[in-house]
Amino acid sequence: NAGVTQTPKFQVLKTGQSMTLQCAQDMNHNSMYWYRQDPGMGLRLIYYSASEGTTDKGEVPNGYNVSRLNKREFSLRLESAAPSQTSVYFCASSPYFTGTTNYGYTFGSGTRLTVV
Amino acid sequence: SQQGEEDPQALSIQEGENATMNCSYKTSINNLQWYRQNSGRGLVHLILIRSNEREKHSGRLRVTLDTSKKSSSLLITASRAADTASYFCATDDNTNAGKSTFGDGTTLTVKP
């Protein structure tokens, strides 16, 4: 009954370091998403994957890369972390596929990232 | 830029009272959804309303949608302390790409 699992839950990076945030879902969902949430704000879409093997940019993709490793896993990579990337990162999944209705996401519990 | 804007930003009520939150958006939508976020947690999907629907109910939740005004409201009736959370509206546009755009949220505090 895991749903969407994100690792790690907390991370502190120094400016210029790189890291990969992991996300896995066990609901056989087609679509997966990475959002960031800054204090007091809503979520902004970084990247998404509408199906295994495809990825597309969202609203704020600069400084990030993603990999849809298989249907279950969707990772987010920060190549050279900057203080502006300090945020809470949420992974989400959805059974949505092209031509259907998006009935809503299942979210992971988030990764709190601080870049110093 | 954010598609949805919630109003008010913060709302504080007594247990048992009703809470109403509003969401305005800018472009045509396919559907609108409401989510709840408890402090430090991920978002939980509450309810979806399609663009051709005007009202929807789920338990103590009532959602309305006015596409002519590009606005939606979420009503929580007989609120409980456990309803204390942030509430976000999210819109899917007409591109059918399955991407939701979130507003900045309303923080609801229900005092016991």
Care to describe what's here?
Chain A has 116 residues and is mainly β. Chain A has strands spanning 4-7, 10-13, 19-25, 31-37, 43-49, 56-57, 64-68, 74-78, 87-94, 106-107, 111-115. The mean pLDDT of chain A is 93. Chain B is globular and about 45 Å long. Chain B has 112 residues and is mainly β. Chain B has strands spanning 5-7, 10-14, 19-24, 29-37, 43-50, 55-58, 61-66, 71-76, 85-93, 100-102, 106-111. The model of chain B has no long low-confidence stretch (mean pLDDT 92). The A-B interface holds A 4, 31, 33, 35, 40-45, 48, 50, 56, 58-59, 90, 92, 94, 96-99, 101-110 and B 1-2, 4, 30-31, 33, 35, 40-45, 48, 50, 88, 92, 96-105.
Give the helix/strand layout:
The complex is a heterodimer of chains A (116) and B (112).
Chain A: E1 4-7, E2 10-13, E3 19-25, E4 31-37, E5 43-49, E6 56-57, E7 64-68, E8 74-78, E9 87-94, E10 106-107, E11 111-115
Chain B: E1 5-7, E2 10-14, E3 19-24, E4 29-37, E5 43-50, E6 55-58, E7 61-66, E8 71-76, E9 85-93, E10 100-102, E11 106-111
Parallel strand pairs in B: 2-11
Antiparallel strand pairs in B: 1-3, 3-8, 4-5, 4-9, 6-7, 7-8, 9-10, 9-11
- What gap, in angstroms, lies between the N and C termini of chain B? 37 Å
Order of helical and strand elements of chain A: EEEEEEEEEEE
Share of residues in helices of chain B? under 10%
Instruction: List the total number of helices of chain A.
Output: 0
Largest sheet of chain B: 6 strands, mixed
Q: Please identify the structural class of chain B as seen in this structure.
A: mainly beta
Most extensive interface: pair and counts?
A-B, 32 and 27 residues
Q: Output the radius of gyration of chain B.
A: 13 Å
Assign an overall shape of chain B.
globular
Unreliable sequence segments of chain A: none
According to DSSP, the number of beta strands of chain A is 11
